[in-house]
Design goal:
371 residues; 10 helices; alpha+beta; binds flavin-adenine dinucleotide; globular; FAD/NAD(P)-binding domain
Length: 371
């Protein structure tokens, strides 16, 4: 299918990478984003080399490498702070780092700027109020009363996708895992050249995201799924780090800015039925939201974008394209969601403990497979 008018709902990682791929294939793309400020929070994410391979397919690899920082190893520490292993990784293709740490704002700027430069129209502060699929096209009416007609609609509106509940009302909804994550940025020590993972009842990781920055993540059991006010978050995060290794305690002492703490309950969802209805298809966390234990959620959304664009190019009908896209993506995304959840449940006693290092090594083999 060529020269389509495509509406993308959600200007996050999956929506923007879809916009880049589809604009480059010659389609006319409009992105609507609910957040009028189009902002993201300030910590970072890890992208493994399968994601960099997808970035290469999208033509944005150079920008990725410039906006983040590559590293090849994972270092494992026991709760006392003693390093027990330095595990080297292997990139999926020569010349790529095994992992890239990147700040969310830097990634957002890269994807947003590239999508707009490729020709996407981005409209902020809008949601779709009505999606009327006539069979021949989709008539959409937005929250500001404006409307238009598109050949296809891609919903990349995240884990709490309202498009999913509207278009696939029978699909699974997100569930809270019992675990939450706390994150905070710090200056990066000059000698931090790996992801450092501190095992223990409170899991801690240090992730380089630029030449000068790293972020800390801390996973804690939160069985009652509390909601904390911003005021006091820094003190709560410091308290959660009591009893951790001396190096982590030293960093904890410098957690003082309530607004710098990003607290997030961890939710999962896997839509096991179709990922589309008619001319509307879903992508990313809207259909497969994972916990971050394998660091692959955004990676799966980015790979979705590459595959969906390929299938739209190859197919004669939306039905063919969307069915082929889901067929290529489902098993890989299912693996990431289920394996990540098993690690999460093992950490909080809801399942047998999972050897994190072995699970990560297995994941690298799985995601090295072609998409
Ligand atoms: C704690 C944590 C750590 C993570 N760490 C990593 C990591 O290290 N590596 C990794 O690869 N992944 C990681 N992830 C996962 C990653 O953040 C997600 O998988 C990824 O953001 C999914 O992209 P998406 O585009 O599907 O959704 P999102 O990034 O959530 O984007 C959805 C967009 O849609 C907009 N939107 C929502 N509703 C509407 C609407 N009705 N109309 C219009 N717009 C709407 C939102 O404002 C948002 O901009 C992590 C996730 C968490 C929670």
């Amino acid at each position: 299918m060529d020269n389509l008018r495509i509406l993308i709902i959600g200007g996050g990682i999956g929506g923007l990478t879809s916009a880049i791929a589809l604009c480059r294939d010659g389609h006319a793309v409009t992105v609507i984003e609910r957040d009028p400020t189009w902002s993201v929070y300030g910590v970072g994410i890890i992208q493994q080399s399968n994601v960099l391979r997808a970035a290469q397919a999208l033509g944005i690899l150079e920008g990725y490498l410039a906006a983040g920082v590559g590293f090849d190893a994972v270092e494992i520490f026991i709760p006392s702070g003693h390093k027990v292993a330095r595990v080297p990784g292997h990139p999926v293709a020569p010349g790529l780092p095994v992992n890239l740490g990147i700040g969310r704002p830097a990634l957002h700027a890269l994807l947003g700027d590239t999508a707009i430069a490729a020709g996407a129209e981005v409209r902020l502060g809008l949601t779709a109020q009505i999606l009327d699929d006539t069979g021949a096209a989709v008539n959409a009416t937005f929250s500001d009363g404006s409307h238009g007609t598109w050949d296809l609609v891609i919903a990349a509106d995240g884990v709490h996708s309202t498009t999913r509940t509207r278009v696939l009302p029978e699909a699974q909804a997100p569930e809270f895992t019992g675990q939450s994550v706390w994150r905070y940025n710090f200056p990066r020590p000059a000698d931090l050249d790996a992801l450092q993972v501190y095992n223990g009842p409170t899991g801690v990781g240090l992730v380089p995201i630029s030449e000068s920055l790293m972020y800390m993540y801390v996973t804690t059991p939160e069985p009652d799924n509390p909601r904390y006010p911003t005021e006091g978050l820094a003190a709560r995060m410091r308290a959660k780090l009591a009893g951790t290794a001396p190096a982590i305690q030293a960093l904890a002492d410098t957690i003082t800015d309530d607004h710098g703490v990003v607290y997030r309950p961890l939710e999962v969802n896997l839509v096991t039925g179709p990922w589309h209805k008619g001319r509307v298809v879903l992508l990313g966390d809207a259909v497969h939201a994972t916990t971050p234990h394998l660091g692959q959620g955004a990676g799966m959304a980015i790979e979705d974008s590459v595959v969906l664009a390929q299938e739209i190019a190859a197919a004669d009908t939306p039905e063919q394209a969307f069915a082929a896209y889901r067929d290529r993506r489902f098993e890989r995304c299912r693996y990431i969601v289920e394996k990540s959840l098993a690690i999460c449940h093992g950490q909080i006693g809801k399942g047998p403990p999972v050897d994190n290092a072995a699970a990560t090594a297995e994941m690298f083999d799985v995601v090295a497979q072609p998409i």
